[in-house]
Amino acid sequence: MLELFSGYSIDTSALIDLWRRYYPPDIFPSLWKKLEDLVSKGSLIATHKVYEELKKYFDMNDELLKWVKKHKKMFRNLDNDQLTHLSEIIKHYPEFVDSDKTLPEADPFVIALAKSKGWTVVTSERPANPGGRLKIPDVCEKCNIKSVSIIEFFREQGWNF
After folding, report:
1. What does the alpha-carbon distance between residue 11 and residue 138 come to, in Å, rounded to a whole number?
2. What residues contact 54, with CB distance under 8 A and at least 6 apart?
3. Which end of the chain is less crowded, N or C, counting CB atoms within 10 A of the terminal residue's CB?
4. pTM above 0.90, yes or no
5. Residue 1: predicted pLDDT
6. Looking at the predicted structure, is the pLDDT value of residue 5 above 70?
7. Spatial contact of 108 and 143, defined as CB atoms under 8 Å apart
8. How far is residue 18 from each of residues 1, 5, 118, 146, 155, measured CA to CA in Å?
9. Contact at 8 Å (CB) between 85 and 112?
10. Which pLDDT belongs to residue 131?
């Protein structure tokens, strides 16, 4: 079911890059306030699989993990609509999912969440090189879902710092 307003489904890589690589909250507190405002409005969300990935990568005392726990309402569980889109993604792009894993990583879930809402994906991933393993932007393009980088996301929001 498509939402009436637009929003963003954010990938694990984008959250990690925002926090750790490019825009740490101690240097960019106004950015993090803006992100929190989007979360509180329900227009910046992530699949629960992103939360699970973050818990897998970082220990419980990690500051990013503390932030996501504080904003846990942004994480959405899989529903029937998302499951339908997820099944289609896995069916049509099996090379997108690691075949050696019983459950896929968050990437197809991020796309399924965006597809179910008609929203945009925010990711740090770049399209694959020719012949390379598909990345989030590749599958988004094939599924007619908009994907943006962190900087493009800022521009769409009209943010500058």
Report:
1. 14
2. 12, 15, 16, 64, 65, 68
3. N
4. yes
5. 47
6. no
7. no
8. 29, 24, 24, 20, 15
9. yes
10. 83
CATH class of the region 8-157 = alpha beta
Query: Which amino acid does the sequence have at 106?
Result: A
Lowest-confidence pick of 1-5, 45-49, 66-70, 153-157: 1-5
With DSSP H G I counted as helix, E B as strand and the rest as coil, what are the percentages for the chain, rounded to 5? 55, 10, 35
The pLDDT value recorded for residue 59 is 87
Q: Provide the Cα torsion 57, 62, 66, 68; round to 10°.
A: -30
Backbone angles phi, psi at 107, to 5 degrees: -50, -55
| DSSP label at residue 22 | I
Nearest Cα neighbor of 66 from 76, 77, 51 is: 51
Query: What six digits make up the tokens of 15?
Result: 């959250």
Of 62, 17, 53, residue with least CA distance to 35: 17
